[in-house]
Structure formats: C-alpha cells, structure tokens
Amino acid sequence: MKMDTRLEDLIGLEDTKLGFFKEVQIKMRELQESNLKLKEKRQQIQAILDGITDVMAVISLDYRIQSVNHVFYRVFPHPEPQDEFCYRVFRNQDSPCSPCPLSEALETNHVSRQMYIYHLKGENRQFEITASPLRDQRGIPEHMLLLKRDVTVEKEYQAKYYHAEKMATIGLLAAGVAHEINNPLTAICGFAEGLKRRLPRLEERLGDLQNDKKLARDLQEYVETIIAEGHRCRDIVQNLLTFSPRWNASLTAVDLNFIVVDVLKILEHHLKKKLPNAICLDLDPALPRPMGIAAELKQVVLNLVLNALEAIQNQGKITLRTRTRGDDWIVLSVKDTGYGIPEENLDKLFEPFFTTKPVGKGIGIGLSTCYNIIRQHKGEIQVESSAGQGATFRVKLPMP
Amino acid sequence: MPMSVRKFSIPEILFGRGSMQYVGTCARRLGAEKVFFVSDPGLKKAGWVDKVFELLETEKLSWVYYSNVVANPRDHQVQEGAQLYLDEGCDVVVSLGGGSPMDAAKGIALVASNGGKVHQYEGANRIHRPLPPMVFIPSTAGSGSDVSQFAIINDVQRRVKMSIISRTLVPNISIIDPNILTTKTKSLIIAAAIDAIAHAAESYVSKIASPFTEVHSLKSIDIIIKVLPAALETRGIDALEQLSVASTSAGMAFSNASLGIDHALAHSLGGMLDVVHGLIHPVLLPHVLRFNLPACPDKVADIGEIVLGKRYSSDEKTALAGIEKLEEFSHQLNVSTRLRDIITDRASLPQVCRMAVNDSCLLTNPRPATWEEMLQICEDAW
Description:
heterodimer, A: about 400 residues, alpha+beta, Beta-Lactamase, Helix Hairpins, Heat Shock Protein 90, 3 domains, 5-stranded antiparallel β-sheet, 5-stranded mixed β-sheet, 12 strands, about 20% strand, B: about 375 residues, alpha/beta, Rossmann fold, Dehydroquinate synthase-like, alpha domain, 2 domains, 6-stranded parallel β-sheet, 3-stranded mixed β-sheet, 15 helices, about 50% helix, globular
C-alpha cells in the first residue's frame, strides 16, 4: 500500500484541504440536469393534457375547482374558476347537484358517467360528464377528475342514423307491398279496360228502356272509376317501387341547374296564372355536375317546388339555389316563406304516408320518395323550419 | 520544487476557558444534523462527554457516540466506526480526547467519506475526496492532533503505526478549552507536555522548518519548561492554560514542519510493542538531539538556550548543556529516562529500527540515519 513519501509531500504545496465545493458543483450539475429532464417530462405531459379536447377540471372533495385545462375557457364563460364551487361555475347553482357525478364516483369508487345539456352561448349543447377519483399513493381519493365531452354532434349523427335505419325498413316494406300489389293491379286495370271496350256492345244489346239506359250509364261510370282509381294505385305503386334498392341503374352527369329550369317550365302555366313573381333563382353557373338519374332528380325538384307552392299559398317567395359546399357536396336548396313546419312534424316528414293534407288531397308519399331517391344517389335531404317561419329543404349530392 | 517555499496551515482555533460551549454551534455551522462523536471512557467518567451531549442537545443536534478507542487506535476500530457513521447517516465528526480518540476520529471521517480500508491511505496526500467537517476538542495539552495534518493508526496485522498525512486531515475547527485539563492526572499532564516538547524540538530542527513554525517551536519549549512544574504543583488554571498554548504551538509547528528520528522510533515502538507514546520521548529525545547535533549545532543550541536561559561560548556547548538540562528536567518529573524501563524485549530493537527507517518522519530529520545508527541511539538509551 505504502508509497515512498517525499519531503515535498510533507510540505504539500500542491495539496490543500479538500472541500465540498467541487462535490457541490457536481451535485448542482446533476440536479440541473435532472431538473431539465423533469421539465421536459412536465412539458410532455402538459402537451398531452392540452391535446385533450374535453373540458377537464380537478375538483377537491369539498366541490372546489383546483385547476382546469384550456378547453374550459373556450367552452364555459367563467374567467377564473379556481377555488370556486363546481356547481356554481358549471350550473350556476347554490348547492351540489343531484345527482352529483362526483359524489357518485366517490361512493362507488368507480368512474361515474352522466349526460347533461348545458345552455351555452345561445345554444343547447349536450355533454357527457365523466367523474373519476384521483387517488394518492395509498389509494385514498384526494381529488376528483371531471371530464366533460361535447357529444352534441355525435348525438345528432346517432339520431340521423336511427332515422335512416327506420326509413330503410319502412321503404323496404313499402316496396315489398307495392311489388305484390302490382300484379293484381295490372290484372284489375287490364280487365277493367277490357270491360270498358266491351261496354258499347253491351249497350247495343240493351234496349231503350229507361232502366237499361241507367244500367249502361252505371256500368260506364263504375268501370271508369275502377280504371281511374286503378291508375292512381299504379302511380302510387310506381312511386313506392323507387324505395327498393336499385342495383343496375346507370348514373350520368346531371346538370342540376338545367333540371331546375326544366321543372319551372313544366309549372310555367300554373305559375303564370297564380304567382307570376314568386320564384327566385340563384343558380351557380359553375356548378359541377353530380352523377345521377335526371328523371328521378327532376321528380325530386318538382316535389319540393310543389310543396313550397302549397306552403306559400298565393303569397310569398320561393328561392331555388344551387351551390357547392366545401369539396364534398353540391347543394340544391328550396326555400319558401310559407307557413313552415311545426317542430313535432320535422322528424316524421320523410316517412311514407305521413301527410298534413286533408284526406283525399295527398297521401304523403312525395317527400318519402324524394328521400329515397336522394339516398340512392348517396346524398342527403335535410329540412330546416319552424312553424310560421317558412322552410328550407336542402338536397345534398356528393361531388363527382 | 523551490525548496524555499513553505506552507503553514492550521484549523480555525477557538481558544480559552469555557470555549467548549461552542461545540454545538460550531458543528451546526458546519452543517451538522447528526453528529458522530468520538471520545473515550476516561472522559465519560470525568463527565466531559456528558457535557458535550448537553451542548449538542442545546443546539438540537442528534448524535451517535463512539468510544471503542484505545491508546494507539487500531485499524479495525476505525473501520467499525466508519461503518457506524454511514449506517447512522451522520454528517459531522466531533472528537473529544487525546491523540488516540482524535486520530481515530480522523480515520473514521476518512474511511466514511473515501471508502475502502484505512490502510490504503497510508503515506502522504493519498486522500482524493473531501472529509466530513471535523470539530476537535483536545483533552490533553500534547498530542497536537487537533491542529495537525497527521493521523497515526495502528495496523494490527503488520504491527505498524501507519502515518496518514494530508492537509485534508487538518480539522476544520479546534476548540481548546484549558478547563478540561483540570480533571487530568499528573502523569497524563506530564506525558502530554513531554510529547509537546518532543514535537517542538523535532519540528524546530526539521529540514522544512520555516519562520512560522520555528517561532511556535521555541515558544512551546519555553512555556513548558517554565510552567510545567508549577502546573503540576498548583493545578492552577493559569498554568494549565499556558500548557494548552504550548501544546497548540507545538502542534502548529510539527503539523507544518514534520518531525524526526524520535517520532520515527516512537511510531515503530508503539506499533510493534504497543508502548504508550508519551513515555517514549523522555527516553529517546536527548539521544536523538545529540545524534542530530553535528547537522545543526546552531539550532540545537537555540533549544539549549531556551532550556538553560543562557548561552555558552559555542553552539555545541550550549546545545549539550541544554540536552543535559532536559534530561534533568525529566528526572525531576519522575518519569522513566531509560529504554529498559519501558520495554522488556531488547532483542526486538533491531527490527523496530529497520521499520523506523521507513517512517516518513525520518525524511525531515536534519541528519540522515541508517537503521544501524538508529539502533545505536536505542542502545545508548537502553
């Protein structure tokens, strides 16, 4: 172990009492490095937290808000929620909510969920609220984590999906029924025509008696009624048949503007007589041509214009507009200033056989036909209206 | 290396009656929360250890007490202490005692902070990491360990006293309280005082003595010669305080100028035969001084002049008369002056001397010595 000691070593000019300065320096450098790492980690976690698009709040067990994320400030109007009671900030109440998702989560020791509609910035938004306990190292809840997710859009999609599903089922049913009726109807109409053709011969054989003439007249009338009603049924059935899926229809590029003009030509006579200045056109000259079946789309436009005319009842305006929306949609809208549609009817509007017209004036098949036609074009038809405020129907077709 | 450059380093020194009361504040100012306190059973019995406990408690410091220390402290005691220091998570070393507890405390501080075995630091400047802060309270006026850069630890297996030399071993604070000397026995005071004289004399003639060490060396001898008899007789605090000054001065001198043959042999005898350090100097010092005389007659004469209070016609005469006076002084103190009185095994002397040749104290001796020459010194002292 021992090395030879020299005189210089004893004097020790180059050696000095070692202090901790260097050690402290090293320690400080280590601490600085680990501090930097921690800071990066914190920023990373903050970035993750900032990436969460739900409203997030940490709430103490006595209902006071400890902290919120930046989404909070975008959604809720409160400028400084820290230390405020959560029920006051979120729901403007003076006491805890009932049921309170926080206390529920605390009692069950599980994540608790609740749906709630907030009235924010003038509209109702539906939120899904999730509350979960934040536990300390021993597993004892210290704070509560509250997440609020705006599910308004999802809920709308969901409703749309249910509606589409229902419509498809009804459509299938209607189409099936129509198909079954079509054959007997052909026979009824055919044989009624046959009867009608034979009626003159029958009339010859009948005498000139009063009774005979009445019989001939009656027969004539009955047969014509059968034929007329038969044709009406045939038309209904034709419409109903559009409900069933089409597998082999060939689509072509369709000029929606041209269709609109064409439909107005059909109605020209009718319009001149009643409302010469009711129609406004706002057509996009550069409108792309969606793929579709012109005759079917014409039927849709005709239906919508007729409905609008019905709604304005001799006064008011109808605006037909074509536009592109974003990169995905071509939109045709028909807006009227008529009596509008009551809210309770909006849901049922496109169902077959739903009508508000008096019996005999309509059977409620027009809009459901439109709905099916547009659906088969992979488009959407929407309505926006409230009673007394007019209505706007929008037909959206996918960009080619 | 320019041999004209010298170094003088000492700890902070608190000196005066009752200065012990600052031990807690000193430790706290050095960052203490849990003090490792080294002392010995004798001081416990005298009540000084309890006094230190009290002072530490006043400062709200906790402490671990270690007293497994004997004269010529053993390597394994150092290792055991260091382990305890680490296990208990101590942060400052406080020692109250003579050379043995203080050297043991240095060894413990060293091993606790630098790791390994105390043996691996034997020699000069082998310590590479700082030690925990040390606050020492000398209980004897002699060892000088509270101001020195030396720690002498007994290697039990090799039966050698290891010298560990490093500026890092200089304690941070030395608290010198003459009050502690009031409970010392007469023989302990004598042994310590003679140890101090040996430190002073050997450092004065050292090859690396400097003006700063020389003044302390001479001052120390002067005080002890004048005051020791009175101190023993009256046990007056004024005299005891003077002894404390003398011992500290001697410590400052030898810590910076190192020692010579007398200490090289004393370490060897202590290591091999476990002879108590203080007993050796009255026996060997006069013979060592005579041996060194040809190399530095003027310096030995300076010592003689201090002892005699006058100078003769030549340095040599003054020197020799002074040495005789020193021997006489020892006689009057009733301590052994022959080697045969303190060891029995004359046959082991050659081995003792062969070992002493390797002692670092020999480096600074003014006259080089072979082991045979050292044996001759021992034979002369027999």
